[in-house]
């Protein structure tokens, strides 16, 4: 099986990790590149990609990438669903207050 090393499978790399998993590839979480090595050899995305591949192939990175589809993801979806109407309600109340102040001040000024 082909192994892919991706940094940040739970945040910025989650979409790429899902795509690769759907294609039947093994996704491995790779830690950030060594800062000292980056400083000595220059900073570039190409060098970071090569280092991630070497880390994944050598077995230094053996942690399974986050899938973002387990019970934790289900709870996150429920929290977002709970928070969304509350946020909309607060926005609506704030908007009504501001409209009330604007109407009140414009009728006094007239």
Task: Indicate the topology.
Blueprint: E1 3-6, H1 14-22, E2 26-29, H2 35-41, H3 45-58, H4 71-109
Parallel strand pairs: 1-2
3D structure, described in words:
- By secondary structure, this protein is mainly alpha-helical.
- It folds into two domains: 3-58, no CATH class; 70-110.
- It is 63% helix and 7% strand.
- The protein has four helices and two strands; from the N terminus they run βαβααα.
- Strands 1-2 form a two-stranded parallel ribbon.
- β1, α1 and β2 (26-29) form a beta-alpha-beta unit.
- The chain is elongated and about 75 Å long.
- The mean pLDDT is 75.
* Mean pLDDT rating: 75
Query: Can you tell me the residue ranges where pLDDT is under 50 for at least 5 consecutive residues?
Result: none
Assign a percent range to the helix content. Answer: 55-70%
Give the strand order, joined by hyphens, for the main sheet. Answer: 1-2
| Helix vs. strand class | mainly alpha
Taken together, the total number of domains comes to 2
Q: If helices are DSSP runs of H or I spanning 4 or more residues, what is the number of helices?
A: 4
Task: Work out the strand percent.
Answer: 5-15%
SSE pattern: EHEHHH
End-to-end C-alpha gap: 76 Å
Report the count of strand segments.
2
The profile of the biggest β sheet is: 2 strands, parallel
Shape from CA axes?
elongated
CA radius of gyration is 24 Å
């Amino acid at each position: 099986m082909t192994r892919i090393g991706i940094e940040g499978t739970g945040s910025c790399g989650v979409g790429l990790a899902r795509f690769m998993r759907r294609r039947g590839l093994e996704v491995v979480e790779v830690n950030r590149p060594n800062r000292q090595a980056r400083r000595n050899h220059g900073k570039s995305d190409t060098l970071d990609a090569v280092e991630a591949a070497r880390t994944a192939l050598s077995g230094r990175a053996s942690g399974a990438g986050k899938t973002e589809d387990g019970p934790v993801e289900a709870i996150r979806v429920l929290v977002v669903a709970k928070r969304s109407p509350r946020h909309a309600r607060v926005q609506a109340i704030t908007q009504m207050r501001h409209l009330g102040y604007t109407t009140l001040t414009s009728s006094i000024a007239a």
